Amino acid sequence: MASEPSTQSRVMFQATDKTEEPAHRKLGKLTVKYNRKDLQRRLDIEEWIDGQLHLLFDCEEEEIPELEIDIDELLELTDEGQRTRLQELLQECGKPKEDFINGLLYRIKGLRKMSGPLKK
């Protein structure tokens, strides 16, 4: 039953160029630095903000005034500072904005501030 060594299949591996890093490895570095769950939560919050801004301004994305709600900036402020900053950003909005502000402040509770981009 033993097969002859000359008839066995062989698998050969070629050495890859170490200077080019595969895309999946770069993604791995990102999820190591930032927990995947935190990244997903932040993305969900940003999508929620986008949808709520459409409702608040009752228009298409192109028509929404230039408005940037920086989650990291909010996380650096006190609770009252967060509320004040959001009211400043939304002062052009004619609709009631308290529900949006309360909803956003609730969603960012416990979220951690993300540091800047990775340095090589």
Please characterize this protein's 3D structure.
Residues 1-20 are annotated as: Disordered. Residues 1-11 have a biased composition (Polar residues). Keywords: Acetylation, Phosphoprotein, Protein phosphatase inhibitor. Belongs to the PP1 inhibitor family. Pfam families: PP1_inhibitor. By secondary structure, the protein is mostly helical. The protein has a domain at 36-108. The chain is 50% helix and 0% strand. It contains five helices and no strands. 2% of the residues are buried. The model has no long low-confidence stretch (mean pLDDT 76).
Task: Compose a concise summary of this entry.
The protein is mainly alpha-helical and 120 residues long.
Write the layout of secondary structure elements.
Layout (H helix, E strand, L loop, with lengths): L22 H11 L2 H22 L13 H5 L3 H11 L8 H11 L12
